[in-house]
Design goal:
- This is Myotubularin-related protein 12.
- It comes from Steatornis caripensis.
- Keywords: Cytoplasm, Sarcoplasmic reticulum.
- Belongs to the protein-tyrosine phosphatase family. Non-receptor class myotubularin subfamily.
- The structure is a single chain.
- By secondary structure, the protein is α+β, with helices and mostly antiparallel strands.
- Among the domains are: 123 residues, Pleckstrin-homology domain (PH domain)/Phosphotyrosine-binding domain (PTB) (PH-domain like, Roll); 322 residues, no CATH class.
- It has 23 helices and 14 strands.
- The strands form three sheets. The chain has an eight-stranded antiparallel beta sheet, with helices on one face.
- α11 packs antiparallel against α12, α11 packs parallel to α14 and α14 packs antiparallel against α15.
- The two termini are 15 Å apart.
Length: 716
């Protein structure tokens, strides 16, 4: 039985953003804290605006007890309309998917979110009229197709003050100068040029205003087929080899057109491929990687493993966890994508060969592979501003269909989590080589959440042309000066400085300038001879010996399994394997080439993103956060000793260690920190509070305050 408390006495009103309008609301709604059969929960008001669905209880009015990692735009009980995945109603204990017009209204509303949160709202004690209004309102505003102009993005941009620039150090790639600077940075300006041919979008609405092509490609060639068949430059390697992409010609054509296009392509290829000096390898990603439909199917299966309704369901699936995980095929897709990126890196790095990635529009898998290759080969892309600039260059300006792929308007049949696939692949690298990245996994998680926050234009258009035409139209309509959208890269909009500290990696191995004696020994930038101390996790000699002596044995015993993961049909198997093994047998240079480990269980589930709302999956005082906390303590100790030894050099020691104060009391932190803080009410302590007190009295081991997890508040 649910104990019916008195409804909230004081009026709790939602905090509305500029341009946000309250559409409907219902009082005396009961939100289950955790659907575990205990029916524990809290009463409050459920509201729907043109931006979000929000649950307001009496705690919402007070700022006490707020987590320090708090999003200023989306609260813990807020769901943006774009973040709603599916809505179910419970009728007589049966779940039914809610879409369109409803004849009967449910007694419980279950909302599954794209960031994997699950909300249960009991409407049994709500007035019937309010139930009708709130349920039909939520279903209508979050599930039915809408026009682009109806997105909250436009309401917010016209009402919000334009006082943030938001560029920071991120290169936006919306000017010719940005492209020229990138060419200069990568030394690509010898063979490539930035062109203005598409100004006014006279070549194609899909291409950006400015882009880079080989020097010998003429303006006529670019105009001939609306930019199709033209190699567009992505990045240049230190040895001069370049990574290029190209949108392919349609496959179904008549013979004469096909012949003309083939002749055109042959001419283009000759401008890049000039053996023996300039070599070119083409790679059609539509045939060598999974299709978008495969990616969508795999992710749909995969996310179901984490949209857990209750504790019973969690333990029921836990028994079959590995077989369920394997059957989704999601980790296998990540492995295949990483393997493809390693193959491309080998061509550029070792074979000094230009690589041309080909895809129908060159805006999906081309973006994934080109971004991954740059993260692996260019240490600048592993800094925060460098990674953000990379996303701008390859995805936002590069013309990835964010609007369609994320299905923001609820009318796309082309939905596929392509950008999420990239973030999952980058996360594999971040967790395998933490010191190589200036940003943390929390940064990647928050970036994935920002896909569904429609106050930033970054992930809400299909192309630069679509954004520009809408910006111009709105500017003319409002006539209140230039109409400007926010960019997601201005993190101060979502987080205050204390919370932003969680996005930066305090253990990042910053690049040091080598002295002259070291420079002489390095043959080129990515030679892996300058290893940082304490980086070699496994003995390279043993590993090398094992590989050489038992390679044939392993291939005989596990041939098929290894073949599935490692060998690709279109190149000699040993070339890839030799490059991969050779690299992994040497110490890691965190500022050189990074190759992900892709054998067997090396590909992992991004626990922080996918498990953060499941209390049963949390380890108190454990996980990677506990290790990071210990290392930070050591670093702080070293820093204080250094300062005592030599006050003059104290400035040279990184002061960033103090920037993550919450990492200190690690015994009370969850493995899913900092997101586990948001679940503080539903966490059951591993030890009763009295046991903690006994430990504290007995020993100095646990001299830590109850700052993060409310252990006593949950005891029933």
């Amino acid at each position: 039985e649910i104990q019916i408390k008195e409804p909230i006495e004081k009026e709790v009103n939602p905090r509305l953003l500029p341009g946000e309008l309250l559409l409907c609301e219902a009082s005396t709604v009961y939100k289950y804290i955790q659907e575990d059969g205990s029916n524990r929960g809290t009463y409050g008001k459920l509201v729907c605006t043109n931006f979000k669905i929000a649950f307001l209880d009496d705690d919402s009015a007070s700022d006490d007890n707020e987590p320090q990692f708090k999003n200023k735009i989306v609260g813990e009980n807020d769901i943006t309309l774009q973040c709603v995945d599916q809505i179910y109603g419970v009728y007589d204990e049966k779940k039914k998917l809610l879409t369109g017009q409803l004849r009967k209204y449910p007694e419980t509303l279950i909302i599954y979110c794209k960031d994997l949160r699950v909300f249960h709202f009991c409407l049994r004690y709500t007035k019937e009229e309010e139930v009708k209004r709130i349920v039909s309102g939520i279903v209508h505003h979050s599930q039915t197709p809408k026009l682009l102009k109806r997105l909250f993005l436009f309401s917010y941009a016209s009402a919000a003050p334009n006082n943030t620039d938001g560029r920071n150090e991120t290169v936006m790639f919306d000017t010719l100068e940005d492209w020229r600077a990138e060419l200069e940075r990568t030394k690509g300006n010898v063979k490539y040029k930035a062109v203005t041919t598409n100004e006014g979008y006279r070549v194609s609405e899909k291409l950006p205003l400015y882009f880079v092509v080989p020097i010998c490609v003429s303006e006529e060639s670019i105009l001939k087929y609306e930019g199709r068949g033209i190699p567009i430059w992505c990045w240049s390697c230190h040895n001069g080899a370049a990574l290029l992409k190209m949108s392919a010609f349609p496959k179904e054509q008549d013979d004469s057109t096909s012949q003309m296009q083939k002749a055109f392509l042959d001419g283009i290829y000759k401008t890049i491929s000039k053996p023996p000096y300039e070599l070119l390898k083409t790679d059609d990603l539509s045939s060598s990687l999974p299709s978008l439909q495969d990616i969508q199917t795999a992710y749909t299966r995969f996310k179901q493993l984490f949209l857990i309704d209750n504790s019973t369901e969690f333990w029921a699936t836990d028994v079959k966890w590995f077989s369920l995980l394997e059957s989704t095929n999601w980790l296998e897709i990540i492995r295949r994508v990483l393997k493809k990126a390693i193959e491309v890196a080998e061509c550029l790095e070792r074979q000094h060969t230009n690589v041309l990635l080909i895809e129908e529009s060159a805006t999906d898998l081309c973006c994934v592979i080109s971004s991954l290759v740059q993260v692996m080969m260019d240490s600048y892309s592993r800094t925060k501003s460098g990674f953000q600039s990379l996303i701008q260059k390859e995805w936002v300006i590069g013309g990835h269909d964010f609007l369609d792929r994320c299905n923001h308007l609820r009318k796309s049949d082309k939905e596929a989590p392509v950008f999420l696939l990239l973030l999952n692949c980058v996360w594999q690298l971040v967790q395998q080589y933490p010191p190589a990245f200036e940003f943390t996994e929390t940064y990647l998680t928050v970036l994935s959440d920002s896909l569904y926050v429609p106050i930033f234009s970054t992930f809400f258009f299909n192309s630069q042309h679509q954004k520009d035409t809408n910006t111009t139209a709105e500017s003319l309509k409002t006539q209140s000066g230039p109409f400007r959208f926010l960019t997601v890269w201005d993190w101060s909009v979502q987080f205050d400085p204390k919370a932003q500290a969680f996005l930066n990696n305090p253990l990042y191995a910053e690049k040091t300038k080598p002295d002259k004696s070291q420079r002489k020994t390095t043959r080129f930038k990515h030679q892996r001879q300058l290893s940082l101390p304490l980086t070699q996790t496994k003995s390279s000699t043993k590993r090398g010996f094992f590989r050489e002596e038992t390679d044939h044995l392993i291939k005989n015993i596990l041939g098929k399994r290894i073949g599935k993961f490692i060998n690709s049909s279109d190149e000699p198997p040993n070339s890839f394997r030799e490059f991969y093994d050779s690299w992994h047998s040497k110490p890691v240079d965190y500022h050189g080439l990074l190759l992900p480990r892709i054998d067997g269980p090396e590909i992992k589930v991004w626990a922080q993103r996918y498990l953060r709302w499941i209390p049963e999956a949390q380890l108190h005082g454990g996980g990677t956060i506990a290790i990071a906390a210990r290392i930070l303590d050591l670093m702080e100790e070293v820093q204080s000793l250094q300062m005592k030894m030599d006050e003059e050099h104290s400035q040279a020691v990184s002061g960033g260690i103090h920037s993550v104060p919450l990492l200190r009391n690690s015994a009370r932190l969850s493995s899913l920190f900092p997101f586990a803080l948001l679940q503080r009410q539903s966490i059951k302590p591993a030890l009763p509070t009295s046991t903690w007190k006994d430990l504290e009295d007995e020993d100095d081991l646990v001299k830590r305050d109850d700052e993060f997890v409310d252990l006593s508040g949950d005891m029933s």
